[in-house]
């Protein structure tokens, strides 16, 4: 990861974790956290601070469990595009929550994820 990107991510994390909630956080619609090691708490804080996320990319990111993925589904009703490629934490429950709780979701990327036929059936059904 480049030094510039690292500094920006650290600055963003400080704002998110602080008591200050800048106006621009509530307006964020596109967030790309690709190939990063991020915690459950960090993802959860982002979701609660950025309610208007429509495009979320966590491609090849790691360090978190299935819990924030379920939170993404529950707290991001405006989500249209979700990229979870190579996220090894996915479970059938995650897929069920995503497909049932994100009515505007039109694009779901799950490449190189360990999901089974039941999860695929859930996606097709919804």
UniProtKB/TrEMBL annotation:
Source taxonomy: Eukaryota, Fungi, Fungi incertae sedis, Mucoromycota, Glomeromycotina
Protein name: F-box domain-containing protein
Recorded GO CC terms: SCF ubiquitin ligase complex
Organism of derivation: Diversispora epigaea
Domain of life where this protein originates: Eukaryota
Xref: Gene3D superfamilies: Ribonuclease Inhibitor
GO biological process: SCF-dependent proteasomal ubiquitin-dependent protein catabolic process
């Amino acid at each position: 990861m480049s030094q510039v990107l690292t500094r920006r991510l650290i600055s963003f994390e400080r704002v998110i974790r602080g008591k200050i909630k800048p106006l621009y956080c509530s307006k964020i619609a596109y967030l790309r956290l690709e190939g990063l090691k991020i915690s459950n708490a960090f993802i959860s804080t982002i979701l609660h601070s950025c309610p208007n996320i429509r495009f979320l990319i966590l491609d090849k990111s790691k360090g978190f469990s299935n819990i924030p993925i379920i939170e993404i589904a529950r707290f991001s009703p405006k989500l249209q595009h979700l990229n979870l490629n190579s996220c090894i934490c996915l479970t059938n429950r995650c897929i069920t929550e995503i497909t049932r709780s994100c009515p505007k979701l039109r694009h779901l990327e799950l490449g190189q994820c360990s999901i089974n036929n039941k999860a695929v059936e859930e996606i097709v059904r919804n």
